[in-house]
Amino acid sequence: NLHAEIQGNTGFAGGKGFLVAGVAYHQQEVDTSNDAGFHTLMAEAKDADQQAAFGQLEYSFTPRLKGVVAARVDDSSLHDTQVSPKGSLVFSANPNHTFRVTYNEAFQVPNYSEFFLRVPAGAPITAFAPLEAALAPVLGGRTLGLRSIPILALGNSALEVEEIRSYEVGYNGIFGSKLFLTIDYYQSEIENFVTDLLPGVNPAFRGYTPPAFLPAPVAAQVLGTLRAGLGPNFVGLTDLNGQPSLVLSYANSGVVDTEGVDVAFNYYATNRFVVDFSYSWFDFEVKQQNERDQLLPNAPENKYSAGVSYNADRWSGS
Asked: pTM for the full model?
């Protein structure tokens, strides 16, 4: 990994405005070959580069109202150019109580495994060897490749980025110089999830068709036998360089709406004792997903924590 970034900032309008801007460059080289030169996870070594330009503008319209707008443009050899805008308004009722509303867009790039994976996903299928043997008189010395069908997990280099759009309202306040409280509520829409490894989802691998030299009745018999033997995995059967193969791969699929609440406070009981508490509520609704995939959140519906800490001159505990 090689990363470089240049950033600058300046104030203007007599201190009412503040601007931050910069550019960044990132380069990655990934090689999963072992000491013998065998690529263990990908078909070949890969390298990628990303460039970005970003900026954020803050402006105080009044002593109590401040606006923030920001944007970032990302260009990469791994995905299409992405523009990520953000905007918020912050209102301070007084120095101790602040309200804010925010909108932002962001994205997440599939990882190298999802883009370029190439590994066996199981032992080869040998159950159709008798079928090929029975068709030997028809094949005339040629082969259908059914004696041993490899099962492969292959990446999808055409994956799109996962996208998220979020709205948020929040409040933070200080009470009696002892209690610091924050409350946030958000709603988000997330789409273009990367599925689990599934058969038949990557359009780069078309469905299997028997060789053209087979008579039509024989070809139909072969397809029927394969379909019955593989069941739902038949949709993943394809032809890789003349070899029938069962391919599992990735695709973009799914739209999910989420919402949640985050509450946290710190209470400074004394100069040495601090009590803290946080609670998060999370909910989601799957609007769309691949029929063979299952979208599950990586967060619980309810999460909370509580603690107390003591800070002495030479030691502390929590």
From this structure: 0.84
